[in-house]
Amino acid sequence: MDNRPQSAGLIATTVVINIIWWMLMIAAIGLGAIHMDHCPVQPNVPVYLIVLGATSLLSLIFTYSSTGYQDGAVHILSLACMTVLHIFSFAWLIAGSSWVYAVYPPNYSGKERYCHKTTYQFAFVVTTLLWVAMTLLLVCSCCFALLTCCTTIFAGRHLLPNRKSFYGATSFHEPATGDV
């Protein structure tokens, strides 16, 4: 495990993002629970918000408990639970996207047929932000992997010895003692 000290800016950013995410997921649970029966056009939208909020909060709790214990059964159990939760959350995001985007664009004029405006807009924005964040993470990961591969390939010719060099040499061409 890497135990290097982290910068204050990184720690502050992590804390702020965690607080914002906690508030969003608590709001998702609250909006979904309060407006459970106020979305006749797609009754799964409030359920989607409740489950999304609950699994996200559970995932954060397991993340915190995993970092508290570096070794042992608690760490392994936390990692296993996080893995299952992340897989479930991804599948739930796909299902929720189909429910939220299927009724777009909403018509809020008829209260009998459509979702509560705030609940639907919250679900739409959170779902869209999750897809944007995942796409950004995927693109950055691919760029990092490509950069790492290119760096390794270009540095590869310097990493392998040729017949005129040996391991531990400081330069590739050292004149023999008789050659001056």
In sequence order, what are the helices and strands, one letter per element? HHHH
Tell me the structural class.
mainly alpha
Uncertain segments: none
Count of individual beta strands: 0
Q: What is the overall pLDDT average?
A: 82
| Largest sheet, strands/sense/barrel | none
Q: State the distance separating the first and last CA atoms.
A: 51 Å
The helix tally amounts to 4
Strand content is under 5%
Shape designation: globular
Describe it for me?
- The protein is mostly helical.
- It has one domain (8-159).
- The chain contains four helices and no strands.
- The protein has helices at 8-34, 44-68, 73-102, 117-159.
- Helix 1 (8-34) packs antiparallel against helix 2, helix 2 runs antiparallel to helix 3 (73-102) and helix 3 crosses helix 4.
- The chain is globular and about 95 Å long.
- The two termini are 51 Å apart.
Short description:
By secondary structure, the protein is an all-alpha fold. The protein has one domain (8-159). The protein has helices at 8-34, 44-68, 73-102, 117-159.
What keyword list fits this structure?
69% helix; mainly alpha; 180 residues
Note the topology.
Elements lengths: L7 H27 L9 H25 L4 H30 L14 H43 L21
Helix pairs in contact: 1-2, 1-4, 2-3, 3-4
InterPro entries: TMEM272
Keywords: Membrane, Transmembrane, Transmembrane helix
